[in-house]
Amino acid sequence: MPGKLSLNQCRGIIYRYFLNAGWLPVGTPKRTWPSVSMQDLQMDDPPLPGDPHLQKRRIALDLQNFFFVALGAVIPSPLERLRAANFTLGELAQWCFENQKE
Fold first, then answer.
1. What does pTM read for this prediction?
2. Mean confidence (pLDDT) of the chain
């Protein structure tokens, strides 16, 4: 298994995932994406009555799979971070960097 990913690699994964999945707000320039908050992404808006965090859970699983399958890195579920409205994508990348396991 490869070593841990660098912070820049984690930032790249987070940016590309949210960009390619269409979650970044329209017009978000590459230089400011780290300041986009979970609230800005409008995940689960409006929430499903029977599953208010369906999209957040899906994103959490996607990120875990992407880190592992593509790069051999293991991260715990980021679901709680995705539920925190003021948590930013930059903070999510930092959290992934700090919490990855070999």
1. 0.88
2. 89
